[in-house]
Amino acid sequence: MMNKADMPADAQKGALDGLKVLDLSMYLPGPYASMLLADLGADVIHVEPPTGDLVRVIEPSVGGDSALHHWVGRNKRSCTVDLKSQEGHELFLGLVRDADVVIEGFTPGVAARLGVGYDDCRVVNPDVVYCSISGAGHGHDGSGSPGHDINYLARSGFLDQATDAAGSPVPIGPPIADVAAGLHAAVGILAALRHRDSGGGGQFIDVGLMGAALAMTGPQIVKALAPKPMPRDRDHNLGADPAYRTYRTKDGRHVVIGAFEGKFWIRLCTLLEREDLISLRHSEPDKAASELAGIFRTHDLQHWNSLLDDANVCYSPVNRIDEVSRDPLVLARQDFEISEGHAGLLTSMRNPIRLSATPTATRSGAPGLDEHGPTVEWMVRG
């Protein structure tokens, strides 16, 4: 692994060095998209309202910041702007003149009312790439309906696939639709920049949490809409396959077996000294699952980790959320880092994109509110 000090100067800048991004969004979808661009070297100015992005106060806190903002705010600069004031409006449009990208997360119609919509921005910068991230997208009767991650996971059918023993949908924890919307926004922005740089000019990008949630649920939706839908009790993604499900251990923990391919299932049964289960996977799956459940209840998690973790059988422990950063596979990949922001040090996730010539990097921590002030200007690259 190359250290930052050993990188060539061009590599330290990042693949998107020189790209200028204005981010008006709050919470997670837009800031996650701009974090990805910032990790890749873009100069991102987070334009916050005078009271700041509300993600800054979501618990738990890290010093004067929130843990969530400490992560998603990295590699950016912050200035506060009152878009309802003439001075603030002029300041923002002044930054738009030299910007490559504008990201906003308002309810459709709000940006235009504030005078910072796509039509307003392209008057001062015809080549600007403008990305709007909203709940249900633009251009239809439901565009103005409010909602958050959980609402779109519910509408998309995602929560129908995450149920308790009684079959009731349950909150899943990770804000899947928020992050997925940010990912899709970043891809759309990069595609639009490619089009602009080939002479096509700027354009408007419409990304909805609804569509992002549908994309995350897509593999299950296409099965449900097939001419002959797969019954839930036969769907391996819902635990119907004994080789592809969770099992409880003696100490109350859980393990996952993902031995979808036959060779992994055969190897698992052989390691467990239960070759009789090999054929039961398809002939009597419920019996095979019941037998496996009994086997895994005979020992605690540490025993199964020692026996199966490196046995090439698609085995994983179900980590508690505070154990993830210590998982051997995560440590080997160096997926976590100690990052520093205005609130201090915090362990957080590295960008999962690894480029060999222009690596992603945490070049600066999350900024304090209005740290770069109303005189903020675009960075000049030498």
Tell me the overall shape.
elongated
Strand content: 15-25%
The number of helical elements comes to 14
Which spans of ≥5 residues are poorly predicted at pLDDT below 50? 1-11
Q: What's the pLDDT, averaged over the residues? A: 91
- By DSSP, the count of extended strands is 13
Largest sheet: 6 strands, parallel
The secondary structure category is alpha/beta
How is this structure best described in words?
- β9 (244-248) and β10 form a beta hairpin.
- Residues 1-11 have low confidence and may be disordered.
- α2 packs across α8, α7 packs parallel to α9 (209-224) and α8 (176-200) crosses α9.
- The chain is of the alpha/beta class and 382 residues long.
- The protein is elongated and about 75 Å long.
- The strands form four sheets. It has a six-stranded parallel β-sheet with strand order 5-2-1-6-7-8, sandwiched between helices.
- It has helices spanning 9-13, 29-39, 67-72, 86-96, 110-113, 118-124, 149-155, 176-200, 209-224, 262-271, 277-283, 285-296, 301-308, 328-333; strands at 20-23, 43-48, 61-62, 65-66, 76-80, 101-104, 129-134, 203-208, 244-248, 254-258, 315-317, 336-341, 344-349.
Would you summarize the structure shown here?
It is built from 14 helices and 13 strands. With 382 residues, it is of the alpha/beta class.
Descriptors:
single chain; 382 residues; 6-stranded parallel sheet; 3-stranded antiparallel sheet; 14 helices; disordered N terminus
Topology (SSEs and partners):
Layout: H1 9-13, E1 20-23, H2 29-39, E2 43-48, E3 61-62, E4 65-66, H3 67-72, E5 76-80, H4 86-96, E6 101-104, H5 110-113, H6 118-124, E7 129-134, H7 149-155, H8 176-200, E8 203-208, H9 209-224, E9 244-248, E10 254-258, H10 262-271, H11 277-283, H12 285-296, H13 301-308, E11 315-317, H14 328-333, E12 336-341, E13 344-349
